[in-house]
Amino acid sequence: MSVDFDVSNHVARVTINRPERLNAVDSAAHARLAEIWDEVEQNPEIRCAVLTGAGPKAFCAGADLKENTGLSGVNYWKNISAAGFTGIALRQMSTPVIARVNGLALGGGLEMVLGCDIVIAVETARFGLPEAKVGRVPLDGGMVLLSRLVPRNVAMGMMMTGRLLAASELERHGLVNAIVPPEELDAETDRWVADLLSCAPLSLRAIKAISRQTAHLPVQEAFQYPTDELEAALCSDDADEGVAAFREKRAPVWKGC
User: Fold this and answer.
1) Distances (CA, A) of 250 to 113, 194, 242
2) Is residue 256 a contact partner of residue 47, using CB atoms and an 8 Å limit?
């Protein structure tokens, strides 16, 4: 399989497994990733997901340019789904997703990172959108999302030159949450997973929904913006359980309802 998928203890772990191609995504991997994200969203037992690439060199080098899909750039653009590259970059997923960036994140690989909520990277990781160097453009979220998540000129510099930025540079600009040596990547990722699992799952979904859906609104409108996720969290049994656990000085037992 070109993509490994495992679910255990409320965590989905998704690994692009094409290390010989720097985890570049071909059409088969693209389709499988889209299926996986559908499953993650539909399974209430999954409270967070971790996305990474196999091997020590690359998270994902983007689309596999050696594959001939038969689609022109215009046709691809006109038929692109709202999900974007691999079903996550432009998709409004409600499940929290951590990017475990173990190496290069280029093109669609960086666009997948932009679709995640928390980014953990090794010290040697590098990020870039080099599409213009091969006569293409970052269609699957890069042109739309990057300049919203880092300063505009940083985004323009990356996209218009194809330059790669180190993890430390993007941490400074707020895109990367933590940087660690390679041998500490799993432990750091697991710490973030544990922190997510310690929180009420419906609260996390509400926070994510409001944050993503109100960024364009004036503050007062954002305060009053209704979402199904917010209502579900406010009316949940977990809301009562969290307060009860705090008063009783014990760990809460989340039911996700």
Assistant:
1) 35, 16, 10
2) yes
pLDDT digits (tens, 9 = 90+) for 163-197: 999 999 999 999 999 999 999 999 999 999 999 99
Query: Which of the four pLDDT bands, split at 50, 70 and 90, describes residue 5?
Result: very high
Alpha carbons 94 and 72: distance in angstroms, whole number: 32
State the pairing for strand pair 165-166/126-128.
Answer: antiparallel
What is the rounded CA–CA span in Å between residue 234 and residue 218? 23
Q: CB–CB of 208/47 below 8 Å?
A: no
What one-character DSSP code corresponds to residue 27?
Answer: H
Indicate the DSSP class of residue 146: H
Residues taking part in catalysis: 111, 131
Which residues sit opposite 100 in a β-bridge?
Answer: 52, 120
SS percent in the chain: helix, strand, coil, step 5: 45, 15, 40
- In this predicted model, what pLDDT tens digit does every residue of 87-123 receive, in sequence order? 677 777 899 999 999 999 999 999 999 999 999 999 9
Tokens of 128: 């870039």
User: What CA–CA distance (Å, rounded) separates 169 from 174?
Assistant: 9
Between CA 182 and CA 58 the distance in angstroms is 12
